[in-house]
Amino acid sequence: METKQKLTKKSNISIEEVREELGDCTRCNLHKDRKTIVFGSGNPNADLVFVGEGPGADEDEQGFPFVGRAGKKLTEIIEKGMNLNREKDTYICNIVKCRPPNNRDPKPDEITACKPFLIKQLQAIQPKAIVALGKPAASTLLGRTVPIMKERGNWYEYEGIPLMLTLHPAYLLRAYTIENRRNVMNDMNKVLKKLKQ
Hints:
Layout: H1 15-22, E1 41-42, E2 48-52, H2 57-62, H3 69-81, H4 86-89, E3 90-94, H5 108-125, E4 129-133, H6 135-142, H7 148-151, E5 155-158, E6 161-166, H8 169-174, H9 178-196
Parallel strand pairs: 2-3, 2-4, 4-6
Antiparallel strand pairs: 1-3, 5-6
Helix pairs in contact: 1-5
């Protein structure tokens, strides 16, 4: 694993300041159809950050990430599988803050417009570990196209922070198999071990 300079030694930016800077964003076309910006939720001092791809219909309606069916699955993984508290022990955000139409993957220009805010969120939080949920999140954080089925379960680094790639909870709902479930839980057990180091 190649070691890079960490994001910053100690960030002097807060989550609240990042949200304020984002404002009522119109930096890409996603703002045209959104109901609300879905910035992130959880503990801004958490050791663990989960990064997804973008809000769905439920998230757009409620203004919080991972509150629909995939969110319920993620909460189950965090609380039952990892024995952590979603709100107290983690922070959850997405690579884009507005819902892509028809829940499609975010386009490169949309990711480019939102990525500075994701970076600033990670700078503000300074987690001990990041979990990329699915291919778009993994590809954005690593700066290359990631074959998620091949690379999930492995540690990488994002600006000096350990980064685990795993399957998106929505994929688990679509392709629920014992093997996929076991793979994700094995990935999360690796994350728990990393957090204890």
